[in-house]
Amino acid sequence: MMLNIRSFNLGPLQTNAYLLTGADPAKGIIIDPGMNPAALVRSIEGMEIEAILLTHAHFDHMGGVDEIRKAKKCPVYLHPLESEWLSSPKLNGSLMWSEVSPPLATDPAEYDLAEGQVLQFIGHTFRVYHTPGHSPGSVSFLCGNDLFSGDVLFKMGVGRTDLPGGRERDLFDSIRGKLYKMDDEVKVYPGHGPRTTIGFEKIRNPYVPQ
């Protein structure tokens, strides 16, 4: 069954938000609803949103959570290592980046994410990989041959590790030990920039070669 993926480039840091639908176009899930989500909000009018999945809780990835959760009455999923970040502008970084964001805060996530967890939404299966390094609770979601990598792996790039809770060794372990173990054909939908594939990154990524 086909997974339909729509990408939205949101906010001052050009964060990729993803709206996913299955066989029923009236039901969807959202991965990382970022700041200034008006275009995404317009696109989900009349839709049932089953869940918001967060790859991590930095402000540019969670900026649209409050508006969408209240409008759609949908639960939020987040790794517990960042459980306090949604309600803390200091932890989610919006306090530190005051030139691009007001202080952002919303209620904690309804559900935790964990390594190896399997989620069923919109007629599809999503497997959770805990991929820390950019942030302690970063996760990636694999649905068939589609991987949503947040700020872990980019096209010919990787997530920065100089923010609170970041660790370069963890990031490289996450990429080599988990993401690079996936099939070369897996398409990577990152938190910023264009999509890529696992096979391409294993050969061409200058930061984490295979």
Describe the structure.
By secondary structure, this protein is of the alpha/beta class. The protein has a single domain (4-204), classed as 4-Layer Sandwich (Metallo-beta-lactamase, Chain A), CATH 3.60.15.10. The chain has 6 helices and 14 strands. The protein has helices spanning 38-43, 59-62, 65-72, 89-92, 168-177, 198-204, and strands at 4-10, 15-21, 27-31, 48-53, 76-78, 111-112, 118-121, 124-130, 139-143, 146-150, 153-154, 157-158, 187-190, 196-197. The strands form 3 sheets. A 6-stranded mixed sheet has the order 1-2-3-4-5-6, covered by helices on one side. The chain has a 6-stranded mixed sheet with strand order 7-8-9-10-13-14. A hairpin with a 2-residue loop joins β11 and β12. The protein starts with a strand and ends in a 6-residue tail after the last helix. 43% of the residues are buried. Its cofactor is Zn(2+). GO terms for molecular function: hydrolase activity; metal ion binding. Pfam families: Lactamase_B. Keywords: Hydrolase, Metal-binding, Zinc. InterPro entries: MBL_Glyoxalase_II (IPR051453), Metallo-B-lactamas (IPR001279), RibonucZ/Hydroxyglut_hydro (IPR036866).
